[in-house]
Design brief:
Metal Binding Protein, Guanine Nucleotide Exchange Factor, Chain A, 10 strands, three-stranded antiparallel β-sheet, seven-stranded mixed β-sheet, mainly beta
Length: 137
């Protein structure tokens, strides 16, 4: 599937060819901390199928596996864009929040569920509202 995305301010854009069957949710504590959210959705892309325009900033962290992971984000607006192994730039994990077609990309698996917030596993029970002005039901 062909997708495209950008950071919030538009300084960094990309196009990619991905397999939607590989969309996942990650509940690891690193994703929670770095994203400021209870989990993060990702989809892998081969470097050969990824065209990036703009120059993201990067941060290198050590994963629980011991691998050095490069996290890429917009230095202007802070939007998380992707991650990848520092020593193996052949595959990147795109952050679904920056993908324009994100509503079409349903996750197929969840990982690191032992770190998941208990309430994040059943959001349907939490009252919902279409916007901030309407009281949740």
């Amino acid at each position: 599937m062909k997708i495209d995305g950008c950071c919030h301010c538009g300084r960094i854009t990309y196009e990619a060819e991905i397999n939607p069957d590989y969309v996942i949710i990650c509940h690891c504590t690193d994703c929670q901390t770095v994203s400021g959210a209870p989990y993060r959705a990702n989809v892998p892309v081969l470097a050969a199928n990824f065209k990036l325009r703009g120059e993201p900033k990067t941060y290198v962290k050590i994963a629980s596996s011991g691998n050095e992971m490069m996290l890429a984000f917009c230095g202007n607006c802070g939007t998380s864009l992707y991650s990848g192994k520092k020593d193996d730039p052949s595959v990147f994990n795109l952050r679904l929040g920056a993908v324009k077609q994100r509503a079409e990309l349903t996750p197929k698996a969840q990982y690191w569920c032992r770190s998941a917030m208990p309430w994040a596993m059943d959001l349907a029970r939490i009252p919902q509202s279409p916007d901030q002005r309407t009281p949740p039901r």
